Amino acid sequence: MRIRGAILTFVALLLAVPVALRSDEKPQKPDTPHLAFVKEFVRELSAIEEIRSNAEQDQKKDPNATFSNLVHSATLFKLELGSQVRMLSSMNLSDPFDTLIPSMISFYEEKIKLWDRMKEIGASFIGGPREGVDYQKLGAEVPELRARLEYVDQSIFQASPMVFATLIDMKPDSRNHVSHLIITKAERAELLDSLDTAFGKKLDEKKPNYTVGSAAVLRDALLKKGFKCSDEPWE
User: What is the pTM of this model?
Assistant: First the structure.
């Protein structure tokens, strides 16, 4: 029950705060089914975590290939994030979730810029020293870029309760409580299965990275008994 209260509180607070990305213009696109949006969000988290995990394994296999591995993984991140931006740009959510997709797109575009810079730095170290290149300065820039990437991932993690909130049916029950989701039991089971398939035991780590943490937020919210599914009895 506590997770339901936390999510509803989060939604209320978010809607009460002015958001820079909110537009006065009404969206021109038709509303995207909320379940389709959540499925896409799960797919995006899974794709990013797979690239990160593979990059980590590549580095362990060949510690001497740090910079070529960096160029490789940064390129994959850029390509995947670009695909995600294009996918989300085709979607639309109406008020009160109208800022969620633009916010995600903004986060992803910032990550593309950061990974592009990571790629440039990695490429600068490949092929031996070149005249006029300040390698010490470039090396010092990497931790800063990593911190900025982590900050963006943290922002996505903090928005994850809002992603789950898109699945809440705001129609009150006989007690005037919001108690149901807009998805069926089968659809909830499918979402849980996709999360488990993509992340497995990582979802139960005590200190997961922010991408896994975002997936865990969705998994835990779907597992809690605070909300019934749309095909369960209404009170």
Answer: 0.86
